[in-house]
Amino acid sequence: DQAETVLLQLLRGAGMKGLAAMPEERALGSLKLLRPLLDVSREEIEVYARARGWSWVDDESNADTALRRNAVRHHLMPLLEDLFPGAAVTLAQAAAQFAESAVLLDALARQDGAAAIGPEGLPVARLKELDAARARNLLRHYLELHGIPIRRERLREALEQMLDAREDAQPVVDFGTATLRRFQGHVVLVQIKSTPKPPQDRIGGCSAGALSARHRRYSTSLFHVNPPAVDARTWPWQGEAELDLGAAGKLCFSAVVGQGVRLPARATVRLRVGGEKLRLDARQPTRTLKNLLREAAVPPWLRECLPLIYLDDRLAWAAEIGADAAFQAGPEEAGWLISWRKPG
User: Fold this and answer.
1) Can you say how many angstroms the Cα of residue 336 is from the centroid of all Cα atoms in its chain?
2) Are residues 193 and 292 in the same domain?
3) CA separation (Å) from 303 to 163, 253, 271, 291, 335?
4) Quick one: average pLDDT of 68-80?
5) Is residue 206 predicted with pLDDT exceeding 70?
6) What are the beta bridge partners of residue 173?
7) pLDDT for the residue 223
8) Is 15 in a helix, a strand, or coil?
9) Does 187 score more than 70 pLDDT?
């Protein structure tokens, strides 16, 4: 089995971990999968079983050479054994050496990662300091931390895009369930999550991938994107302490005096669609929310769709930015401190 696995993985262009073939033990969810007979040949097992009068069932599909593993077993392995006696044992030994090399590469990646990976992601400057092979090893480790496997060629392309793009560019590598991005000198993984079903009374829509939440785990960064449901865009607020926005998280309201946002008992929460404007200081001109978000260094995947609070059709407050000057509570006025609890 080990020899067959090594050959199959080699022909698939697998890396060190793939060429390590099957481990004697590995985690399987909350269980541990054990393979105690990997070093025992089929002949030895059959002799052992016959000596004890055991019977067994042969799976008919094992003879189907249309399956690649069976073709290797019935055609390629006998030829290799003829040309190189003990080939199966030699290949299994090679797998063990590949496994040791994979362990060393993982240890190096963890060492590099511990010194580089943080809440903001993986620093581009650190990747540029390393030689190409070591940088790829670190990026592979960063992706695998969050369950994103990647082939060598795709890994090379992703690293080149992250390092070689123009200074003002925002490169994106799409992995289907996640995207790799560069923002403020860091490589960041934005992982797409499934969307919970929203209440039936919500209307409107927003582009998939527009919502996200920062999630920190094991001192690494992982940004989750919750694609909003088609009918999740507008929510009425009637003075409650928490307003559930479904895939967009929650807004939390605390009543205060002399600060915060001056709101009546009713308001409307909408998601950002673009073109909004705010005047944060009465002595300053009105500015676009787009520019305010950029200056506040809000990541692009958060800018695309933020919770906004409206009174009638006038924007009073924007998540990550604050309240319009016209709605800021005075020294003796009642107000609301509002925080956005992002999903994830």
Assistant:
1) 35
2) no
3) 23, 22, 10, 10, 26
4) 94
5) no
6) 180
7) 59
8) coil
9) yes
